[in-house]
């Protein structure tokens, strides 16, 4: 029912409430915990988070900065794993951050009017109930300076750039734009966005996916993360560092153009 692409690993939340992980597992980030009571997952650079139905969070993987050690409480309703920090949204509308904090990326703003959070590489974004966006953390490329406005309905923090979806179905991008990753396509029919490193993804209302930005991975290999698969039956997307994920209505995972019929 949900997917999340990290740096070199991936997570999916299954309909039975369990989590499945795959990919690079050098820190145990793809080894999901047991249980059938999860309602959300988030893959960071080398760590992972899972939100349970009772409002508690489980973390696993690389924990050098404490990014995989969430607070011990049961009032969370949202999670986001970033580069080496993590964010969580509480039921009262406030935000909690933990992990690496050299750019204050884990120092959440005050307030109880937040409805969504997104942790990027070294920066963070939050969507407020009034439709405005707040950003904090590393701002070397302007990634924490969102546009003005009160008509935003979703945010996504990439490694060096940021995206936001407007109520009218259009997308706004800001921050680093070396490969065009912060220059979204025109249109007013988008329903979801996801920011990666040098590429971005968006889901259209007709179920198709649009990708933009670089197709070149830093490892020197040509990959297809910004070339979205054909089809109009997708219901979820996630942009990782050098790969992308999507869920089709028929319950098949799409990973870099390959189908893995393993949704059970």
UniProtKB/TrEMBL annotation:
SUPFAM superfamilies in alphabetical order: RCC1/BLIP-II (SSF50985)
InterPro entries from the UniProt entry: Ran_GTPase-activating (IPR051553), RCC1/BLIP-II (IPR009091), Reg_chr_condens (IPR000408)
One Gene Ontology MF term: guanyl-nucleotide exchange factor activity
One Gene Ontology cellular component: cytoplasm
PANTHER family reported in the protein's UniProt record: REGULATOR OF CHROMOSOME CONDENSATION (PTHR45982)
Name of protein: Uncharacterized protein
Species lineage: unclassified sequences, metagenomes, ecological metagenomes
